[in-house]
């Protein structure tokens, strides 16, 4: 069967060149970077070279790079580290309604520990307003955390402007750049950020390795792990040398290929959008029409379930993702789509197509050939086209499958 992978926002394959490097650091150069002998020294050298590559890719100093286990850990470490050390200065945190759960659930946890959390709304395109951020800042605000680009609908936030404002007010600013890195420019100075998270498996490095950037002098301290003195006392635990080397290599490749690849992907993205729009009725493209990731399409199909579409697409070899949340059992539509004011019955029918380096125009055309009959068939058997009935029962059919998480 033809297989088309359109789920790069969930995870990407490891680039063969990256995997090759990794293999070498598992089988040959396997020393502990802390060890003083030859094996250790070789591993240390590789870790520090990877750190330089990552730093170069985001315009940072290598000393400002901390390797973590991934995007979730980086987000947790950033937020906890700022909140805890600045607790005597204030207890107010500002975030947005469309954040990834790694941020949203972290600030909510702090909300239960005496912090006050402002969750800013977004407009219909999923965009946070800089004025709203300005209005939310109080003399108790210690942290603003707003993502660079959204993982569900691709909208790019005005990070540089928010960062400028945060700096003027003396408030630390963190951004989750997990989806943006490798697709649009990510430079810590241009974005005016103090802390920034990225994750290897979203740009062709393996799962389980990430980076937290912390600006020199920022009032932040590692507060989650207790252990060894690795990462200059900022992240205890033996360095994941193969992962770090892989991430360094992938970051280097991402930076080198970004512009060209983004241009190629945005052509495919627009071909998808135009094709869906012209061939299928009752659809809603979500996210900002221009300020969006080059590789992501998010669309709601009225009267049908995102998950039924996913299963039908899967049977045709196409891997996509739905906007439904992973709160197993309950079928809550995505918090992101709801925050944008998209009605429940529309949000239920959302799917996300996220493109990557191996996708071609033929993949897009295959999707455009396969999708219309799927939509037609599902709509024909859908109980949801009687909207009133849907509203009355408050639940949908066709979603009796186990739910899978959207990253
Ligand atoms: C995938 C993702 C994360 C989590 O990263 P992991 O490395 O999977 O923990 C965080 N934020 C965003 C926006 C993501 O897309």
Automatic annotation (TrEMBL):
The active site is at 326 (cysteine persulfide intermediate). [2Fe-2S] cluster binds at residue 326. GO terms for molecular function: 2 iron, 2 sulfur cluster binding; cysteine desulfurase activity; metal ion binding; pyridoxal phosphate binding. One of its GO terms (cellular component) is L-cysteine desulfurase complex. Pathway: Cofactor biosynthesis; iron-sulfur cluster biosynthesis. Residues 4-367 form the Aminotransferase class V domain. Its cofactor is pyridoxal 5'-phosphate. It catalyses: (sulfur carrier)-H + L-cysteine = (sulfur carrier)-SH + L-alanine. It comes from the Bacteria. One of its GO terms (biological process) is [2Fe-2S] cluster assembly. Coiled coil: none annotated. Keywords: 2Fe-2S, Cytoplasm, Iron, Iron-sulfur, Metal-binding, Pyridoxal phosphate, Transferase. Homodimer. Forms a heterotetramer with IscU, interacts with other sulfur acceptors. NCBIfam families: FeS_nifS, PRK02948.1. Master enzyme that delivers sulfur to a number of partners involved in Fe-S cluster assembly, tRNA modification or cofactor biosynthesis. Catalyzes the removal of elemental sulfur atoms from cysteine to produce alanine. Functions as a sulfur delivery protein for Fe-S cluster synthesis onto IscU, an Fe-S scaffold assembly protein, as well as other S acceptor proteins. This is Cysteine desulfurase IscS.
